[in-house]
Amino acid sequence: MKIFYTGYRVLLITLLVWIGGCQQNTTYGTEPKSQIIIAIDATFIPMSFINSDNEKDGFEVDLIKEIARDAGLKYELINVEWGGLFAGLITRKFDLIISSVGIIAERKKRMAFSIPYLQSGAAVLIRNNIKNVESLEDLEKLNATVGAQINTTSYYFLEKYPGIKIKTFEKFGHAVIDLANNGIDALVGDSVQVNYFLKNNKDLMGQARFMGSRMTSEFYGIVIRKEDKQLKSKIDASLTRLLQNGTINKLHQKWQLGKFALVPNSNL
Questions:
Q1: CA dist., res. 171 & res. 183, Å (int)
Q2: Which end of the chain is more exposed for a tag (fewer CB within 10 A), N or C?
Q3: What domains can be seen in the chain, in order of their start residue?
Q4: 250, pLDDT greater than 50
């Protein structure tokens, strides 16, 4: 009887240790993975895009390399369409999102964010042949058609103006093409995107202009599941160091993000 009890106790302890080990490998809040998967929507030039060598490139691609190097993280960077980013994070298909995601209250209900790494906001590009228009209220009076990428903060911003007809696009570049072809009167996008396309798209040169300056202000952060507190701490610590040592400022200059995109201080 004693032998059976001893054997049963050893078996039980072994089983508990095995279960505990399995839980430790999959629980992010207590023990991060040895390699994490990071998602990015590589359609946002110059923040993240696929270059001529078919490689991921851009400000955020460089930034995540620096963060991973500083934090000692091994990672895989995967390209995911914007519409699948948040659901994929919540269902654990990947562990982080870095894709110019604005830190807004609605998103913070479901997800956590790192400290900010960039301050940007919505800017409006309008056709030059539309005169005497300097605000979205002016566009409302014209019952203008304005384009925006679906489910972005620019799109949500436009919804505040019921007199404007909103035309949605899966990709920001499609809105640019439509503007160049006179399919829409104006478009709203992140100031970095708008700045890049205005300077580099020959079809827009001389045909469009910034309407005023930046219309909104928002901070970008890396998106993390709420329960992954240890991973968030690592990311925040690395971002703080990179903000303080000037690395993020250098990347801003390298990718010419423009005067409407600002690198925040590390105390935010």
A1: 15
A2: N
A3: 35-119+219-254 (3.40.190.10), 122-210 (3.40.190.10)
A4: yes
Interval 142-171: pLDDT, tens:
999 999 998 888 898 899 999 999 999 988
Distances from the Cα of 70 to the Cαs of 63, 64, 65, 136, in angstroms? 11, 10, 9, 43
The token pair that represents 125 in the structure block:
């590009």
Task: Say yes or no to pLDDT of 195 above 90.
Answer: no
